[in-house]
Amino acid sequence: MITVPLVPAIAEDTGTAARLGGLFVSAYALLFALSAPLCGAMSDRIGRRTILTTGLVTFALGNILTGVTSDFVPLLVCRGVAGLGAAMIMPSVYAMIADSFPFERRGKVMGIVVAGLLSSTVIGVPLGSYLAYLMGWRAAFFAVGAVAVLVCALVFALIGATPPRAAAGQQSAASPVALYLGMVKRAVTTPAVLCVLGCTLLWAFALYGMFSNIGIFYAERFDFNEAQTGLAIMGSGAGSMTGALLGGRIADRLGKRTVLVAAALVAATGVTSVALIGEHLVPVLIVFVMWGTAVGVGQPSLNALVSELRPEMRGTALALNSSAQYGGMMLATSVAAVLLDNGVSFSVIGAICGVCALAVLPLLVGVRVAGKAEAAEAPAPGMEAKA
Fold first, then answer.
1. CA atoms within 13 A on the CB side of 2
2. Separation CA 278–CA 357 (nearest Å)
3. Do residues 70 and 14 touch, judged by C-beta distance below 8 A?
């Protein structure tokens, strides 16, 4: 997240075309998407805390290296290292939560966890942006690396060792790589899983195609600097946090799919409207916050759905879902960077993202039909039917 408002400064310092700055996010997302399923399988086999702390160390290293690198290609590599660390962190956290709470309460708890993740846009991004404004963009990455080291120490001190959760049956003797490949195969051949992963990929594309370039958008449209863009992102992040906290609770009451439908409609309207409003700053900021709120409302429901599709391989399943999320991010940022560099307007980018948000809706029907079929075969039908 912190990269987004700093893209103009990083691009200028490295001699990169500003509208290609989204590739810094793409490199991070690509390594995350490729490695998350393997990291999830390893957390099932080795234990959540071990993978989590390894990820925090790797994440810290990637950000510190970003701060000492000056050339475009090495910077992409450093962002990839940070993405590898994040691929160990996020699936482990989601899996630890899913291990600890039943599906009926999981929407609320996932909402709290997602709100914690999104708090980065409320606290970290503005602070990092202001630090970059005062001391240069490198200082922001040094700060992120230092915080990751601190969090790693806190995890060791406050979270007990978590036992392995090997997959049942024949897969319990399989290597993490075999679990990785097996989960990919299962996703391709199981309609419910495939539909949820498709929803996640499209949801991420709808968010990051425009969001990863929002720093460039505000700089070009309203002549914002890093600190001003950070404040705008803080407002959107506050909406996302509020949406995640409320959305998770509402999803437990009304159903995960119902909440996702409403969130997709609002998100599509918001992301399409941001670039269409024109030079009127206040309406743009209002719509930006509305769009961020809708994304926050929908994310806990997606996480809760996928957490119950394969309970015996929950870490791997959630990691594969995270892989789909960051795969969508990588595709969105790459496509947007190429289009913007070739003169395509932000209005077109927003419209593409809006279409992706709406494309989630038909896939939710597939999740419902396939989910019922899976429930009939599952050993715990009462729980699976609600998935």
1. 28
2. 22
3. yes
